[in-house]
Amino acid sequence: MNMSELQDKRIAVLLSGGVDSSVVVYEFARQGLHPDCFYIKIGADDKEEWDCSMEEDMEMATAVAHKYGCRLEVVDCHREYWDQVTKYTMEKVKAGLTPNPDVMCNRLIKFGAFHEKRGHDYDLIATGHYAQTETEPLPLHPYPLTSHPSPLTPIKWLCTSPDPVKDQTDFLAQIYGWQLAKAIFPIGHYQKDEVRQIAEREHLVNAKRKDSQGICFLGKINYTDYIRRYVGEEPGDVVELATGKCIGRHRGHWFYTIGQRKGLGFGGGPWFIVKKDASQNILYVAHGYDPSTVYKKDFLIHDFHSINGVMPDSEITFKIRHTPEFHRARFVPTEEGRYAVYSEEKIHGVAPGQFCVIYDNRHHRCYGSGEITI
Question: Which residues are part of the catalytic machinery?
Answer without folding.
Answer: 105, 216
